[in-house]
Amino acid sequence: MRSLYTPVLAVDVMICRGREFLLIRRGKPPYRGYWALPGGHVKYGETVEEAAAREAEEETGLKVRLKEIIGVYSKPDRDPRYHVVSIAFLAEVAGGAQTETEEAPELRWFREPPSKMAFDHADIVRDGLMKLEQRL
């Protein structure tokens, strides 16, 4: 049971190659079938950077190199289950092989956010694309 008094800490990872970014199609609720950034909850004893790298690899099969923080997203209603605060990272592929999983049965590279995105990930992607343009 989640605490009603303490927000849950999570990470989201915008994996980029050039001007493209990788999204997963969610295989589980909430937002089953919607596009999302790979990400998830930070485990006790884990840094947010470790959590971001772990979640990216678990959901995509790719090892990533984190480049910078896109932002912190903390609207209390950003997740319909409970209050989740997410630290979103910009990352690049550092190895591994792109692989679908039960949690992410489809992976696709995009240049623009699709219409059906989970949570507030369209906002994160827009912010990430602005940072990416500054880097390129």
Walk me through this protein's architecture:
This protein has one domain (8-135): Nucleoside Triphosphate Pyrophosphohydrolase. It has helices at residues 48-60, 121-135, and strands at residues 8-17, 20-25, 35-36, 39-41, 62-73, 84-96, 106-110. The protein contains two helices and seven strands; from the N terminus they run E-E-E-E-H-E-E-E-H. 21% of the residues lie in helices and 38% in strands. It has 136 residues and is of the alpha+beta class. The model has no long low-confidence stretch (mean pLDDT 95). The longest helix is centred in the last third of the chain and has 15 residues, at 121-135. Strands 1, 2, 3, 4, 5, 6 and 7 form a seven-stranded mixed sheet that branches.
Q: CATH first level: which class?
A: Alpha Beta
The residue ranges in which pLDDT falls below 50 over 5 or more consecutive positions are none
Strand content: 35-45%
| CATH homology superfamily | Nucleoside Triphosphate Pyrophosphohydrolase
Q: How many strands, which pairing sense, and closed or not: the largest β-sheet? A: 7 strands, mixed
Q: Could you say which overall geometry the principal axes of the C-alpha atoms support?
A: globular
Number of domains: 1
User: What would CATH call the architecture?
Assistant: Alpha-Beta Complex
Order of secondary-structure elements: EEEEHEEEH
What is Rg? 14 Å
Overall pLDDT metric: 95
Structural class: alpha+beta
The DSSP helix count reads: 2
Number of strands: 7
Distance between the termini: 44 Å
Kindly identify the CATH topology.
Nucleoside Triphosphate Pyrophosphohydrolase
Helix content percent band: 10-25%
